């Protein structure tokens, strides 16, 4: 598979969208929702979306692997957002006839502070040495994983900081079963400059039903590595039918990776459909565990919750299951 585009910025919808003044199906406090029209986004047409690779859009939190202090390191997503006063001014400007055009930010004064280690995402524009907010008033960025920060405890659970390994869910190497997945301990160096999705028990309400409160289970999944077989074309009606009727359509959405590097997406909420809605395509796939020799690695135990889960637990858990095959990802408990 060719190297796919990393998710550094918000991905545009494959269709042109419009705003409806009604309760969002995606966010409880949002009193409007963004819905897709039948018109394909010119950005998608220009990038030849019909020839793009369609992959599953995963529902988790975005991560990034790049160098920190000279070594490969997992970074968590942290978008820099405006403070309350600046956000109020921005929203007032948004509702004016001219929309977002012409709004002026003073980044040093208008935005909340971020750690000194924060870096802006790729392709964030710079002006006078400062990053420029996007059209949503955010500055996408990253912070290196701090294992002592409980905010990132579930990120820490999928990384062995000493051996520089990550617990990754990916398509299996079994030629006899194209549908199979595998759980593997992958060197962080092999994931450099990739973005990944952290999914699992304590992320985004766990739409996949992974693990349990007693034994939380989390995985990293590199973006673009879960292709959709026989995807429908970028057509509003056909996509709506596919989401509702096809077993393959039990996904949060689709991300198209175009040959020129352009990414476009659609998710169920764009079509007014629920998510999650019953079982998911991902968790019904068979999976093989390939996590070997973890017991021989020296890993420092890091407390990450009140139940004293350590960073070693998931690696030890899967090492004990090495070679096991499960008929469904959901069966790993």
Largest sheet: 6 strands, antiparallel
Q: Percentage of helical residues? A: 10-25%
Number of extended strands = 18
Strand portion, in percent? 25-35%
**CA(first)-CA(last) distance:** 31 Å
N to C succession of SSEs? EEHEEEHHEEEEHEEEEEHEEEHE
Structural description of this entry:
The structure is a single chain. With 333 residues, this protein is an alpha+beta fold. Helices cover 13% and strands 26% of the residues. It has a six-stranded antiparallel β-sheet, with no helix packed on it. Strand 10 and strand 11 form a beta hairpin. The protein is globular, with a radius of gyration of 21 Å. The two termini are 31 Å apart. Mean pLDDT is 87; it is low at 295-312.
List keywords for this structure.
18 strands; single chain; six-stranded antiparallel beta sheet; 333 residues; 13% helix
List strands and helices in order, with pairings:
Layout: E1 15-20, E2 33-40, H1 42-46, E3 53-57, E4 61-68, E5 71-77, H2 84-94, H3 107-110, E6 119-120, E7 126-127, E8 130-131, E9 141-144, H4 153-156, E10 159-160, E11 165-171, E12 181-187, E13 195-200, E14 218-222, H5 236-245, E15 253-257, E16 263-267, E17 287-290, H6 313-320, E18 325-326
Parallel strand pairs: 12-17
Antiparallel strand pairs: 1-2, 3-15, 4-5, 4-13, 5-9, 6-9, 7-8, 10-11, 11-12, 13-14, 15-16, 17-18
């Amino acid at each position: 598979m060719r190297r796919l585009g990393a998710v550094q910025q918000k991905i545009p919808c494959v269709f042109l969208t419009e705003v409806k003044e009604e309760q969002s199906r995606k966010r409880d406090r949002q009193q409007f929702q963004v819905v897709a029209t039948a018109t394909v986004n010119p950005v998608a047409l220009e990038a030849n979306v019909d020839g793009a690779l369609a992959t599953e859009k995963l529902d988790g939190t975005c991560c990034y692997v790049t160098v920190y202090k000279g070594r490969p390191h997992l970074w968590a997503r942290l978008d820099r957002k405006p403070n309350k006063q600046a956000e109020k001014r921005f929203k007032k400007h948004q509702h004016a006839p001219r929309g977002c055009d012409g709004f002026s930010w003073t980044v040093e004064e208008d935005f909340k502070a971020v750690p000194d280690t924060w870096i802006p995402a790729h392709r964030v524009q710079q002006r006078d040495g400062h990053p420029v907010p996007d059209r949503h008033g955010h500055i996408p960025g990253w912070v290196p994983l701090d294992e002592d920060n409980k905010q990132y405890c579930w990120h820490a659970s999928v990384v062995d900081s000493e051996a520089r390994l990550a617990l990754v869910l990916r398509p299996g190497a079994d030629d006899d079963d194209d549908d199979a997945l595998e759980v593997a301990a992958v060197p962080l160096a092999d994931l450099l400059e990739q973005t990944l999705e952290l999914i699992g028990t304590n992320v985004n309400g766990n739409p996949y039903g992974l693990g349990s409160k007693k034994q939380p289970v989390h995985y990293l999944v590199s973006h673009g590595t879960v292709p959709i077989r026989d995807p429908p074309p970028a057509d509003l009606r056909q996509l709506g039918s596919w989401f509702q009727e096809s077993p393959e359509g039990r996904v949060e959405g689709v991300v198209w990776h175009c040959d020129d590097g352009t990414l476009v997406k659609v998710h169920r909420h764009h079509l007014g459909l629920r998510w999650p809605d019953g079982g998911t395509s991902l968790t019904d796939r068979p999976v093989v565990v390939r996590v070997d020799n973890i017991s021989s690695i020296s890993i420092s135990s890091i407390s990450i919750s009140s139940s004293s889960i350590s960073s070693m637990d998931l690696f030890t858990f899967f090492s004990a299951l090495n070679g096991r095959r499960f008929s469904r990802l959901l069966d790993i408990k």
